[in-house]
Design brief:
Length: 189
């Protein structure tokens, strides 16, 4: 059994891309948020941040149980990819989106300004990328820029990654924004 992990910040396309990849590869998708809910791993709801606070130990145990109970390949999708045990992971894909586009997507979802800013800042700083690299190693984490590609293009890129020994490329929004002289517009000090 092996697992393909799709992660990234809210608004980068995780759910849509995982669903389409699931159809093409004929593999089920398991959402980390659903695992957390179904296993009582949500400690509380943070009203100020409009998000759930996860009991990470509980979620890790639930993921271990999921691995133990399954012998078929599947896709895991979610925000907490660094909590997925590495021994069963085939590939880790982190979806990235240019901060301007991400901001628009999150505003369209109705996120409040503070939550939009928090998620855009996390994208600029590469929080999901860094968490995944810390957990799985730099050579195991692939990043795909979903800013201007379709779901099908992204899925095809993932399929290409799965069948190759391609070296991962990493996206650095901080360098790009700093070169443009606008990094401070995205990072709260």
């Amino acid at each position: 059994m092996s697992v393909i992990v799709i992660g990234g910040n809210p608004g980068t396309g995780k759910t849509m891309i995982a669903a389409e990849l699931s159809k093409k590869l004929e593999l089920p998708v398991v959402q980390l948020g659903t695992i957390a809910e179904e296993n009582g791993c949500i400690r509380e709801h943070d009203d100020q941040r409009s998000s759930n606070v996860i009991d990470e130990d509980c979620l890790v145990e639930a993921i271990h149980n999921l691995f133990y109970e399954n012998d078929e390949d599947f896709i895991i999708e979610g925000h907490y990819v660094d909590l997925v045990p590495s021994r069963k992971v085939k590939e880790i894909i982190i979806l990235r989106t240019h901060p301007d586009v991400l901001r628009e997507r999150l505003l369209e979802r109705g996120y409040d300004k503070a939550k939009v800013n928090e998620n855009v800042e996390a994208e600029v700083m590469g929080v999901c990328q860094m968490d995944a690299i810390f957990s799985f190693g730099e050579d195991a984490v692939y990043e795909i820029d979903t800013t201007s590609i379709s779901v099908d293009e992204c899925v095809n890129t993932i399929i290409e990654i799965l069948g190759s020994n391609k070296k991962p490329e990493h996206i650095d929004w901080m360098d790009l924004l700093e070169e443009q002289g606008i990094l401070e517009d995205y990072i709260s000090l």
